[in-house]
Amino acid sequence: NAGVTQTPKFQVLKTGQSMTLQCAQDMNHNSMYWYRQDPGMGLRLIYYSASEGTTDKGEVPNGYNVSRLNKREFSLRLESAAPSQTSVYFCASSERGTGAEQYFGPGTRLTVT
Amino acid sequence: AQSVTQPDIHITVSEGASLELRCNYSYGATPYLFWYVQSPGQGLQLLLKYFSGDTLVQGIKGFEAEFKRSQSSFNLRKPSVHWSDAAEYFCAVVDIKAAGNKLTFGGGTRVLVKP
Fold it and tell me: Which of A99, A112, B69, B79 could be stapled to B32 by a disulfide with Cβ–Cβ 3.0 to 4.6 Å?
């Protein structure tokens, strides 16, 4: 039982390049989330998927797209990376329902030059 | 919209001493509150949560937190800190009126433990 896994762990991009961050969970959770973590700002929600087949914007969605590929997988795509997207990205999953514990992956550290 | 403030960015504590981390929230109704811990290079792990009932909640690793509605606070405490408690701690709130179980985090408090 691996929990929530993320790939890659580290990535360096040049401005304007694109990439997809992958996330998978093996806990049969309905809901999945993407956050970014920046110093002094805690974690901010980018997008979430309450259940398979649905996605919704969070607090900071601009410059990102997501795909809920199936119940296990939820990917985050940067179409044209910008230096402001340099951050650590975390994927999380939970059972459906308000207040359900969210389980976090180990994170992807992304640098955009 | 709800918000969470953690006034202390860094706290240094000696091993064996007590620890208290402050968290203040802004929310119009009874909040669902959480404390998460992030060890260096790791993801976040849930320490404890408060939904209703007893205002003193116990969590893992010997941590506890007290909900005080009058002060809009949910402070985290540990009576005796171990070196392994060096980490970053995040307070968070869920908007129970919105769909999606979305967490709003505070900015975090980094705890350093002196030997």
Answer: A99
* Chain B residues 18-77 with a CB less than 8 Å from chain A: 32, 36, 41-46, 49, 51
Residue B97 pLDDT more than 90?
A: no
Out of A40, A50, A100, name the one closest to residue B107 (CB): A40
Instruction: Provide the pairing of β-strand A4-7 with A103-104.
Output: unpaired
Dihedral sign, Cα of residue B50, residue B53, residue B57, residue B58: negative
Residue B59, min C-alpha distance to chain A (Å) = 13
Instruction: Evaluate if residue A62 carries a pLDDT over 80.
Output: yes
Nearest to A96 by CA among B101, B94, B36, B49: B101
For residues B7-20, give the mean pLDDT. Answer: 97
Q: Say what the pLDDT of residue A18 is.
A: 97
Residues of chain A with Cβ-Cβ distance to B96 below 8 Å are 98-99
- How many separate helices (H) and strands (E) can be counted in chain A? 0, 11
Contact A65, A8 (CB under 8 A): no
Question: How confident is the prediction for chain A on average, in pLDDT?
Answer: 94
